[in-house]
Every structure is written in C-alpha cells, then in structure tokens.
Design goal:
This protein is an alpha/beta fold and about 325 residues long. It has eleven helices and ten strands. About 45% of the residues lie in helices and about 20% in strands. The longest helix is centred in the C-terminal third of the chain and has 27 residues.
C-alpha cells in the first residue's frame, strides 16, 4: 500500500510517500518539507496569515517533489492522508483543500489525520515493535500532552498544559534573551554552558495529583527577573537563563511522566514532537525510563518536527478503522 501524507498545520508544508506492506512494515520513500522559518524569523514567531499564504505557494511543489522523489505518480497512490486538526486554521485549510481536490480528481480515498496522533505515529518507523497500549508524550511548539494510547486510533489525553506549550515558552523566553527564532536549538546549546542554580524558577508541573503542566508561570518568572535586572543595570549570562529554564522544563516533564507511568502501569513510553529533539530532555527521559525499567521510544531528529511521513503512518491505521473522509471534509483548529 502506498500512502501520500500531507501536513500543513503550522509553519512547514510537508508531503511524504510511505510504503506499507501487508505485515505492517513501513518504509519512507520520500519526505519533502518546505520550511517557513526564514519568513517568520522577521517577526519573532509564526504569523498565521503569512503562514497560510506560504502554504498556498509551496504545497503544489512540495507534493510534486514527494511523488517524484519516490518515483511514483498520483495514480500509484492508494490513500491520501492529510492533517485536518489541530493547528492554525488558515494553514490547515490549505492542506485539506489541496488533498480533497487531489483525492477527488484521482479517485483516491482521503483520510483526515489528527496532528498529535501523527507525531506519535512517527515512532512506528524506527520501532516496528511498538504496539498499543502505551503511554505517549507530545512536546512541541503548540502542544504539550500526555496521552494514553489505547489503540492505534483511540487516544486519551490524561495530561496537558493549561496555558503555554513547552516549545512556545522556549521561544518567548529566547526572544527576550535576544535569540533568533526558533529559539529551541540555541537554548539547548546554551544550557550546556550555563549554571542552572543562578536563577530559582517555579516548576511547570502542577502541584497536585493531575498530570497537567503550566509553563506560563516559569516563563513569566524569567521575564520579570530579566526586566528587573535590566532596570537595575545588572548583567546576566544567557547561558545561565537557558540552563535554569531547561532544568525546570526537563524536571517538570519527568515528574509528570513518572506519575503517569505509575498511574497507568505501562512499561512502554513514546515521545514525539519538535521539542523531543531537545538533547537535555532526551537524556533525562532516558535515565528515568532506565530507572523504571520502561522501554523508551523517541523518533530520530528528522522525524521530530512536522513531516508528511508521520501523517501517512497514522492515515494507514485510520483507514483500516474506516475513518475515511469525503468532499465535505473540513479543517478544525482544535
């Protein structure tokens, strides 16, 4: 089976052709991505209207490249999967509208895919033995959620951020520090050279028995501290800020992850999303899972960010369950 996956939920237009055998083995034949980082860097963050326009300009080329790089044509494709939610509504509509038109004209089934499910599905490429049920964590610019994956299509959110997502907090803190958007990678590097004990920050793990997070508080604490220091003409090292925030971020994630593993009793844990590329988080979660004798699954860096392959992988399972769309398919921001 050949699946074309299309992703346009935020600031990357992506398409991929994935081949899946009868026994479920998955192979990425192509993975084309057009990033909008250079555009949004001018504004210090993603501008929804600009993102939607950029998707419109790139999607034809990206899908054509994916098919060409895979050595396939639209007639060879069996299923077209597309991200339908959640995300920026204008950006999503570009992908959904394009996919619907392509599917209708080619006479192919169209399968709507939840973006968060897609991120988790990225793990299936490198961990073919990964099968539900298991616990999953999605950490990205727009999402921070702990998921109980009951089946390939039945996901239950058991923990989430109540305000800012982890990646969003990284970017907002980094912007105040004068870093270039997106700030995650640079914050990751700076944290190695800083002293996390210089700044005392509140935990992002909600202090109760829920599995929820709140990154707004720690973000605000940093912003207030830096504003106060600047008013007093006091200097600070960016490395120390990065180290302090990263330490709180990883400790908070690990605290709620440990609670979730104990509550669910799962011995398999999958991590996904753009922020899962953070080296400090990967190290801390690896140590936690080793301590708890839990199998850890994290996709390679190439599949952490938004991509079409993860959408194609999840589309396969949605199709098997009969979750097929039609020309009335619409996008949803949530």
């Amino acid at each position: 089976m050949l699946i074309l996956g299309i992703e346009s939920s935020c600031d990357e237009t992506a398409a991929s052709v994935v081949e899946i055998t009868n026994n479920g083995e998955k192979k990425i034949l192509s993975n084309s991505v057009a990033s909008q980082i250079a555009i949004h860097r001018l504004y210090g963050g993603v501008v929804p209207e600009i993102a939607g326009r950029a998707h419109s300009e790139a999607i034809c080329t990206v899908v054509s490249d994916a098919l060409e790089n895979a050595g396939k044509t639209v007639s060879d494709i069996d299923i077209i999967g597309v991200t339908s939610n959640p995300g920026l509504i204008g950006a999503l509509l570009v992908g959904v509208s394009f996919a619907k038109s392509l599917a209708y004209s080619a006479g192919k089934p169209i399968v709507p895919v939840n973006h968060i499910k897609g991120h988790i599905a990225a793990n299936y490429f490198n961990y073919p033995e990964l099968k539900p049920p298991f616990l999953a964590l999605v950490v990205s610019g727009g999402h921070t959620s702990i998921m109980d994956v009951k089946s390939y299509t039945d996901f239950r959110t058991i923990g989430r951020t109540r305000d800012d997502a982890a990646g969003e907090a990284f970017d907002k803190v980094g912007r105040v520090m004068g870093l270039t958007y997106p700030c995650g990678a640079e914050m990751d590097k700076l944290a190695f050279a800083g002293d996390p004990s210089i700044f005392k920050l509140p935990s992002a793990a909600i202090s109760d028995d829920t599995l929820d997070f709140s990154f707004s508080g720690v973000k605000t604490a940093i912003l207030n501290t830096l504003n106060s220091m600047e008013q007093k003409k006091q200097s600070y090292k960016k490395e120390d800020i990065a180290a302090a925030f990263t330490k709180v971020f990883t400790a908070s994630i690990c605290k709620k992850t440990e609670m979730a593993l104990k509550k669910t009793g799962y011995t398999t844990f999958a991590v996904a999303g753009g922020v899962s590329a953070n080296s400090h988080l990967r190290k801390s979660l690896s140590e936690l899972c080793k301590k708890m004798n839990v199998k850890l699954c994290i996709p390679p860096l190439s599949l952490c960010g938004d991509n079409g392959a993860m959408i194609a992988a999840q589309a396969y399972y949605e199709y098997i369950e009969g979750n097929v769309g039609d020309t009335s398919l619409n996008a949803s921001a949530v």
